[in-house]
Design goal:
Shape: elongated
Order of helices and strands: HEEEEHEEEEEEHH
Strand order of the largest sheet: 3-4-5-6-9-10-8-7
CATH class of the largest domain: Mainly Beta
Helix content: 25-40%
Mean pLDDT: 85
Radius of gyration: 29 Å
Number of helices: 4
Low-confidence stretches: none
CATH topology of the largest domain: Sortase, Chain: A
Length: 307
């Protein structure tokens, strides 16, 4: 045993007590939570436009294709602007009227009656003041270029001579592309009397700020189908059915949904000061998610209907 073994062990200094976690003032918590929720809502709109809207389109197409096949089998598919079961009543907006098949673009789309932004969320729309494809005259089909699956996003790649088909309640009609035009490009000569043509129309230009409409003219190369009386005139179309139009009727529901969203953000932001962070987010995610999707759906209708 040495002298050092007889010395008492050294006394280590005590560890400093942990500093209490500094809490932000309640007002700061409320403001920061509100900014975070609103920022995530804006980010969610981008996700909705690029991904969720495609799911909306795909689901609508799947359901409509099954319904239209059943109508074809039963012989109840529309052949004109009125309901097959009640010729005195016009087709409802969103009624499936045809199936457009463009092999070059690997696209098979159900075409719906009407060209408002709400109808074009589900797929291409048939302009109501024109005959159905395959009948004599010029039929117009409009579709989106980017949002909701962008079914007509690749129309510019078509070239004269490309062929596609349109199936209606009267049968299958074949069309051959005559020209692709946009901007100030001249229109092709009108079809001969008794002949048929279809014009596929979509947005052209920037991804989020299209500057014009792109049109694909295609002549009917199969037998011309009988055409019923055209009862809808161009003057009867709503402004929201025109090319690159917006549906201003959504302002009414949008105001109420937007108010509900802002109210939810305010209440949840204030609740954080009493509940805590994680408890607030458990409630916020489903509530803000639902209201955010509803708001994004309405806001998308304020964009041009061909985007």
């Amino acid at each position: 045993m040495t002298a050092t073994d007889l010395l008492p062990p050294p006394v280590l200094p005590a560890a400093p007590p942990p500093r209490p976690r500094r809490q932000a003032p309640p007002a700061v918590q409320v403001v920061s939570t509100a900014i975070t929720i609103l920022s995530l809502t804006l980010l969610g709109f981008g996700v909705y436009a690029g991904w969720v809207s495609r799911l909306h389109h795909d689901r609508a197409q799947l359901t409509a294709y099954a319904d239209f096949r059943k109508d074809l089998a039963l012989g109840t598919a529309p052949t004109g602007p009125t309901k097959p079961t009640d010729p005195k009543r016009l087709l409802d907006f969103g009624t499936p009227v045809a199936v457009l098949d463009i092999p070059k673009l690997h696209r098979k789309e159900v075409v719906f009656e009407g060209t408002t932004g709400a109808v074009l969320q589900d797929g291409p729309g048939h302009r109501r003041d024109t005959p159905l494809p395959g009948q004599s005259g010029v039929s117009v089909i409009m579709g989106r270029a980017t949002m909701y699956g962008g079914p007509f996003g690749a129309l510019a790649t078509l070239v004269p001579g490309d062929e596609f088909t349109v199936t209606t309640g009267q049968g299958v009609s074949r069309f051959k592309v005559l020209d692709v035009r946009h901007g100030g490009m001249p229109q092709p000569p009108p079809p001969a009397t008794g002949a048929g043509r279809v014009v596929l129309t979509t947005a052209y230009g920037g991804l989020l700020v299209p500057s014009d409409a792109l049109r694909v003219d295609a002549d009917l190369v199969s037998e011309v189908l009988p055409k019923p009386q055209q009862v809808v005139k161009n003057s009867q179309l709503a402004p929201a059915e025109q090319v690159m139009a917006v549906d201003t009727r959504v302002w009414f529901p949008l105001v109420f949904i937007g108010e509900a969203l802002l109210l939810a953000v305010a209440l949840l932001s204030a609740a954080r000061a009493f509940w805590g962070l994680w408890q607030t987010w458990i409630v916020a995610v489903p509530v803000v998610g639902f209201l955010g999707l509803a708001t994004a759906d309405q806001v998308s209708r304020l964009l041009p209907n061909l985007m």
